[in-house]
Amino acid sequence: MSDVRKVQVGEVQLAYRVWGEEGAPPAVLLHSLGEDGEDWRGVVGRLAGTHRVFALDQRGHGHSDWPGDYGFARWRDDALGFLRALGLVRVLLIGHSLGAVAALLAAAERPDLVERLVLEEVAPPLPADPPQEVPARPEGPAPFDWQAKVAVVAERNAPDPAWWEAAARVTVPTLVIAGGEASHVPQAQLAALAERLPHARLVTVEGAGHLVHEERPGEFLAAVTSFLAPHA
Fold it and tell me: pTM of the prediction?
């Protein structure tokens, strides 16, 4: 486990962890709903061998502030604010699920800050069919703000149409990692998103489901390593 640090980004304090050598190319990791930066512990050691790795606790999660104000645009702006606050440019930006949507929108907004983009099991910004429902809130303390779940369900059911259009503006090389039919994310939509991205490749890890980097860390890392190879 890496020590947790904090940085002020707009109205929130964001927590993050750092691995790897100072001066190495930066990589920023954005976790899924309900997780935090520690979620990447199974793959971060390998990534830190070549990169200075920053794993963020997104707002409403972990050690970051829980302001009650959430949405994919907020998480996008937090990610961009985090890059600015730490002076990071030309980063390898990796996102999973919620974090992948934030990463996609960030790369569309500021492609100059992103060297390469990895989207693991990204929920395409298309209306969920059938519409999702907010489950009952679990009893007891939660590791994240339940209002973040409410916001995600609302925006999965009625996403901003501009977000789907934004994919065409992502000019950086992009790797889309899918978990196959075991995932709840429609794989046909993932394939359509990869087609929409100008410079994307799609890698499917069959049987991995939604948690590719947890269930199949070796195959996840192999896909990322191949994507980062000089000839790629």
Answer: 0.96
